[in-house]
Amino acid sequence: MDLLKEAETALCPSNEPSSEFSGVSHSPPAILRNMLPNGPTSSSVCADASQRSTVKSIIQAPRRKLVDEGKLKMISGRLFSDSGPRRSTRVAGEGVSTANINGITVAGNGTNHSSKYPSISKLGSAAFRSVTVRKGQSLSTETFSEGVRSELDDTRSNTATTTSGSSLPPDTRSCEHDSSVSRASMSVSKPASGGLQVLSLLKIIGEGYRLSCLYRCQDALDVFMQLPHKHYNTGWVLSQVGKAHFELVDYLEAERAFNNARLASPYSLEGMDIYSTVLYHLKEDMKLSYLAQELISTDRLAPQSWCATGNCYSMQKDHETALKNFQRAVQLNSRFVYAHTLCGHEYVALDDFENGIRSYQNALQIDVRHYNAWHGLAMIYLHQEKYEFSKHHFQRALYINAHSSIIMTYLGTSLHALKRNEEALAVIEKAIIADKKNPLPMYQKANILVSMGEFDSALNVLEELKEYAPHESSVYALMGKIYKRRDMYDMAMLHFGLALDLKPSATDVAAIKADIEKLHMPDELED
Predict the structure, then answer these.
(1) CA geometry: angle at 163 spanning 157 and 167, to 5°?
(2) Which of 277, 289, 463, 499 could form a disulfide with 473 if both were Cys (CB 3.0 to 4.6 A apart)?
(3) What is the DSSP string of 344-410?
(4) Residue 266 lies in a domain
């Protein structure tokens, strides 16, 4: 009540001049609150006609500053404090609902902020803004109503722009909803799409590795080729590609893949033991020596490093030193299967078949699917002329690696030694189809045909084989034997001489010279 009295004293003082406004000869205008619709009339506050004439003269004259604006704002704020903050502020900070003020729909939050003076609490700020801002205009009813309408329009526009309530048009709400949904779906879809891409990459890599373990090497290469360029040219993938080419006896492509793997990951030892074997078969002694030194300097405690060093010595025919290096690899990692197999190869080269068998068996105890150990055991039994054992172990190796042309060829050789020539020819034909670039099965096929007395067919096979292996001395030596059987001694001598010109091994040289000495000897006496 004290606040109301203070406000009424400031806005509508008595006719007696106060001490603060003693220099003003005119009385202030009537209270603006009484000019609102449905409010009390002006005559109830200022009844006499002289006061109305005074008000008229004040309206027509330029309005003077009656009260300090800062104090007026402070008083008005205290007077209408129970109505809460500005409606536009409330609407922006709270929820949304609708209210009806004098027939105009505005947005609100559904909270009841009514007071004893609903018209004043909702329109008071608009009325006072029209009083304090529009100094040069008359305080007529029309001016006041314009200020009220403009304030309501401002409030409605602010409410419409700051909220997304039911006052927005349906099309606008639907567009904003669709855009928000699309943004949310995009934010969700980015991690999901990234996860799907990672899973697709892992699926391709896993499928390629699975096929490689099943020794379906060509299928594995086709799967690895589906990888993107930046994922294909990584050390691990390129090493797997090199292993696949190695199993396909494509040593040139294997060497290229392993070399690229070294460039991509120079300190990775994955597949370097196989890479050293590839260089061994290609007779690349300089590259093999450099690789061994690099691996030793990278990690002296890795079995791959000592396997590469052992292959380097084995190429130099120093089998004892090579065996020591392979044994060193076994000491560093007793479960490194390939080191046991390489030890078996060196024992065989030293004609120590007993220790060779033991090394291969140690490898099979670690990994029963290591077909190289089965193949090594079969080769020992083949040298020992234990053909049944040899055939059994070749079949076990072929069961694991069903696409190896070399295993098929030696299995045909074992069957041929057992006088099962028809079965041997069938296996040899499969070996030729499996790898047309491999000259070994065609040579074994010619041998089987010679033993069966089909010399013309054998010569046709050898003539075709010369195109694949023109520098193979054994091909010309076998052709010389066939011409000798057919009593064509000149052709036989020609091919024996060509075989010697190709500089075969010492064992082959001795066998070719023995055939030349028996050139004119009948076959019955030779047997």
Answers:
(1) 70
(2) 499
(3) HHHHHHTT-HHHHHHHHHHHHHH-TT-HHHHHHHHHHHHHTT-HHHHHHHHHHHHHHSTT-HHHHHH
(4) no
- pLDDT, mean of residues 477-485: 91
**Residues of the domain holding 87:** 2-162
Write the pLDDT tens digit of every residue in 252-273: 999 999 999 999 999 999 999 9
pLDDT score of 334:
95
| Best CA proximity match to 341, nearest among 350, 329, 278, 351 | 329
- Looking at per-residue pLDDT, the higher value among 174 and 400 belongs to 400
Residue 319 in domain? no
pLDDT for 117: 40
Integer Cα distance of 15 and 25 in angstroms: 10
Query: What distance in Å separates the CA atoms of residue 279 and residue 341, rounded to the nearest whole number?
Result: 17
**Residue 483 placed within a domain:** no
Asked if pLDDT for residue 244 goes beyond 70, the answer is yes
Residue 77: predicted pLDDT: 47
Please state the domain count of the chain.
1
Distance CA 32, CA 47 (A): 16
Amino acid in the structure at residue 358: R
Q: Tell me the one-letter amino acid at 18.
A: S
Phi, psi of 406 (to 5 degrees): -70, -45
40 in any annotated domain: yes
HEC letters along 20-37:
CCCCCCCCCCCCHHHHCC
Question: Residue 487, by phi and psi: left (phi above 0), alpha (psi -120 to 50) or beta?
Answer: left
The predicted model scores a pTM of 0.63
By percentage, how much of the chain surpasses pLDDT 70? 63
pLDDT digits (tens, 9 = 90+) for 378-406: 999 999 999 999 999 999 999 999 999 99
Cα 415–chain centre separation: 50
Q: What is the rounded end-to-end Cα distance, in angstroms, of the chain?
A: 142
Q: What share of the chain is helix, strand, coil (3-state, %, to 5)?
A: 70, 0, 30
